[in-house]
Amino acid sequence: MALINLEVPAGVYRNGTDLQSMGRWRDASLIRWIDGTMRPVGGWRTRSSTATNAIPRGMHTWIDNSNDRWIGTGTYSKLYVYSETGTQYDITPSGLTAGREDAVSFTGYGGSTYGNYAYGIARPDTIRIQPATSWNLQSWGEYLLANNEDDGKVYEWQLNTGTIAAQVANAPVSNRNIVVTAERFLFCLGAGGNPRKVQWSDREDNTTWTPAATNEAGDLELETNGQIVAGMNVRGQTLILTTTDAHVANYIGPPYVYGIERVGSSCGLAANLAYATVDAGCFWMGVHAFYAYTGGGVQEIQSDVSDYVFNDINRGQISKAFAMSNGNYGEIWWFYPSSASTENDRYVTYNYVENTWSIGTLARTAGADRGAFRQPMMADPSDKKIYEHEVGFEYGNLSPFAETGPIMLGTGDKVISVTEMIPDEKTQGDVSATFKTRFYPNGTERSYGPFSMANPTSMRFTGRQVRMRVDGARLSDWRVGVNRLDTVAGGRR
Fold first, then answer.
1. Would you tell me how many other CB atoms lie within 10 Å of the CB of residue 463?
2. What predicted TM-score, i.e. pTM, was given to this entire model?
3. Topology of 44-168+271-389 in CATH?
4. Class of the 2-40+400-489 domain?
5. Rg over CA atoms, the chain
6. pLDDT digits (tens, 9 = 90+) for 409-455
7. Angle at CA 420, nearest 5°, toward 418 and 425?
């Protein structure tokens, strides 16, 4: 008799082949690891019973000067705010140009001359995809600023629920995005239809845009082969991400006001909202990798799940991807559409404190971290409502689980027989375990369980390698540490 510790490192590893994930967690959903211990993510509940007219894309939460809390969100044709009690107000600007709920491209059947390309081979990258419409929402003091690329104008809502958002006077039009800098300038990105132009208002005055000796308004054009996608505040700088590279704008005062320099190449942003900022810096999803800017230069983040994410993402709808931070747990969450879906149906998380990754299934299209509200907020595309997350442990029709890659039970070519497991849980019986065994890497896989946890848990199975799957058996804040298997060594097979 011998005890084998199932010491599986924290986080999911999903690169390469199945065997390359040996001894690691290979699949998971609604799971996180803290201090090496597995636990479920929090559940969710409805924040507002009133749905939007279409799928929300873009969200912002803030507190006004009267300590009232607000949620702003928008769809391809509407702009909304919600009070802290969940009351919805339609503040859609007059004359807003409607965009698209889905990205549009003409690359499918009939997209070119019949027989022009080999069957089953991707066509050349010659057709521009029009992205799904998403809103960039910012605070201007206690007011809300809003912009989307399809309409291009900048709007401001001044907290009066009886009025709609109004166009900011004198501001450029045909803008791709906006950002309010730490120095209290409003940047219009891709201003006036120039995809490389950055134009800013006077400090503290978003209605003054013409440069003069008496103000600090101005503009610059980026030296880039790409087009501006988004801007954000990072560690005292304004980071500007394009489709190909990254730049920072530093305030230098009059007469030039801002200076801009490139800090990264081949690190373009995949979608307007596919970034999140935290105290540590900015993290974003590129076309084929994840990146971070923490001051100095851009770094590619070595991801344990990049194969899984980027080999199974719907490229035609990647513009719907968005990111948000979950600061309580040191996490960045990216939601994206898998290759089998036209809507966001999966997520990938990066714990930048513990440097671990996780994956899962969850449909969300917009979100904002806690701050103005106690919990993070996210929008569900199925019912078009806003939910508050990390509340309780109710998951609708989903449930948390994690499954390992192959774990070798013995050394050499030995066959091992398992007779019982000694579980390591916070509360006995909160999870169940299933084991899947093989004698050869491509041999028939046999499943045993699920086993309800007891101490010890009696079970019988034999094999050279095993997968362990852990499922949350109870809606509780369970913990799983290092389980142990009681084994008997066998012969060769």
1. 27
2. 0.93
3. Methylamine Dehydrogenase; Chain H (2.130.10)
4. mainly beta
5. 25
6. 766 667 888 999 998 888 888 999 999 998 877 788 899 999 998 88
7. 125
